[in-house]
Amino acid sequence: MGDRRLGRGENTTLSAEVLTVAVTGPAVDVVAFVLRPDRTVRTDADFVFYNNPQSPSGKVTLTGPATLTVDLRRIPAEIERIAVGISIDPPATLGGARIDTTVTAGDTTIVAPAEGLTVERAAVLVEIYRRGGDWKLRSESAGWEAGFAALVREHGVAVDDEPAAVGSPASAPTTTSTVSSWISGCR
Q: Which segment of the chain is annotated as a signal peptide (predicted)?
């Protein structure tokens, strides 16, 4: 069908049910939140990141360091949206970085460049959401200067207040309770 570019705040209807979402830019951590209508996760298992690379039922999967696959056919009715976010390690910020989110939906490619980010260390780049029986994509570029812990708290993921030591992704523990420890170390 072709290519489409979405500016910040713009949206488009998705014609395919299986999507590939790829983020290009500086070394950032790519994550996804599988969200209810109140924009929070049901459980920490709906927070997809390198230590939890697949949501329940496999509907959202981190397939590479900066790539997700989203199977809209498998999204339960109680889920209204999927937010795709990023974070960068402090003291770096997202300002000035060229970051593009490319969504491949069947034969359509949609590019949503990050816009307006300055001092933020974490951001939601795009949201995939239900509207009137259709799935749509919106370019967000909504950032959090306070960083990754603030981003995940905003979406209902439990985060410990005390920072914890964080190892490399390969050495990180694999239980849901480690989400809090990993995030706390990202401040």
A: none
Question: Residue 100 corresponds to which tokens in the numbers above?
Answer: 């593009």
Which pLDDT does position 162 carry in this prediction? Answer: 45
Could you tell me the pTM of the whole model? 0.86
Q: Are strands 60-64 and 47-48 parallel, antiparallel or unpaired?
A: unpaired
Give the pLDDT band (50/70/90) at residue 45: very high
Q: In this structure, which long-range contacts are made by residues 45-54, counting pairs with CB atoms below 8 Å and at least 24 apart in sequence?
A: 45/176, 47/152, 47/155, 47/157, 47/179, 49/179, 49/182, 50/169, 50/172, 51/169, 51/172, 51/173, 51/174, 51/178, 51/179, 51/182, 52/176, 52/179
Domain boundaries, the chain: 2-157
Tell me: the pLDDT tens digits for 120-147?
A: 999 999 999 999 999 999 999 999 999 9
* Fold for the domain defined by 2-157: Lipoxygenase-1 (2.60.60)
